[in-house]
């Protein structure tokens, strides 16, 4: 039964991410206007967990964003959206006991990669300068939907031995922290935007008592692509004609 629930959860998570992208591509022009910009956002991220002696883990993120321009000063925007794929965690952790002598012996001298999967929602203020450089900062909320520890042991030239345990019950479902970054807007400020941002978790994510606090950290390199912006602009021009 647990395997069926796990498979269903993975399917629903994947379906949610794919449906968000599909909706974005179909209705992007409906969501864009003079005051609102909508698009897809994604890239590579490097994460670790402060409080653990691990190494940075690499992953790919994907989601969508909204820029709501302020009426009195359009160079200022409220930037939000959802990262539907946002891996966090750390790798290179020492193995710990699995309360199974055979497994403990098999993975002795190996390592553990801690994998945390969130839906992340940034709530940021963004300012774009006349030279098309932008800065942004604010808070970010995260909803944990999956967590696991992956044990690996190299037998020969590759990681031949792998064992994964589900650990979501060990973590708080909600995470929050600070998010700040900067970037550049192509095509004279109306095209794709490229940038970098840093997430500084402020909430202890680990629920187990009598342990050191653990905080998420993440560095993101991203590219944002407006969806349907040019089409929406043409539709507006045609209506005016």
What is the chain-wise order of helices and strands?
HEEEHEEEEHEEH
Helix/strand/pairing class, anyone?
Answer: alpha+beta
What's the helix count?
4
Biggest sheet statistics: 8 strands, antiparallel, barrel
CATH-defined topology: Porin
Widest β-sheet, arrangement of strands? 1-2-3-4-5-7-8-9
Any idea what the CATH architecture is?
Answer: Beta Barrel
What is the total domain count? 1
Strand residue content: over 45%
Distance from N terminus to C terminus (CA atoms, Å) equals 61 Å
CATH top level class name: Mainly Beta
**What number is the mean pLDDT?**
84
Give the helix level as a range of percent.
10-25%
Number of strands: 9
Question: What is the C-alpha radius of gyration, as a whole number of Å?
Answer: 21 Å
Low-confidence segments, given as residue ranges, are 1-28, 231-238
């Amino acid at each position: 039964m647990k395997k069926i629930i796990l498979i269903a959860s993975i399917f629903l998570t994947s379906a949610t991410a794919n449906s968000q992208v599909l909706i974005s591509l179909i209705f992007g022009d409906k969501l864009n206007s003079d005051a609102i910009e909508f698009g897809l956002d994604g890239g590579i991220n490097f994460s670790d967990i402060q409080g653990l002696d691990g190494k940075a883990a690499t992953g790919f993120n994907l989601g969508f964003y909204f820029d709501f321009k302020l009426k009195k000063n359009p160079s200022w925007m409220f930037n939000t959206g959802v990262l539907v794929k946002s891996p966090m965690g750390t790798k290179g952790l020492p193995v710990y006991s699995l309360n199974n002598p055979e497994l403990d012996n098999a993975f002795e001298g190996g390592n553990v990669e801690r994998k945390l999967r969130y839906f992340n929602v940034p709530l940021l203020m963004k300012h774009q300068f006349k030279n098309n450089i932008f800065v942004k900062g604010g808070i970010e909320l995260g909803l944990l939907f999956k967590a696991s520890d992956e044990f690996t042991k190299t037998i020969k030239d590759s990681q031949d031995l792998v064992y994964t345990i589900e650990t979501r019950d060990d973590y708080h479902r909600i995470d929050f922290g600070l998010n700040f970054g900067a970037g550049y807007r192509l095509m004279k400020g109306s095209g794709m935007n490229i940038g970098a941002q840093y997430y500084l978790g402020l909430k202890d994510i680990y629920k187990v008592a009598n342990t050191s606090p653990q905080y998420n950290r993440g560095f993101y390199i991203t590219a944002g692509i407006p969806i349907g912006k040019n089409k929406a602009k043409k539709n507006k021009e045609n209506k005016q004609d």
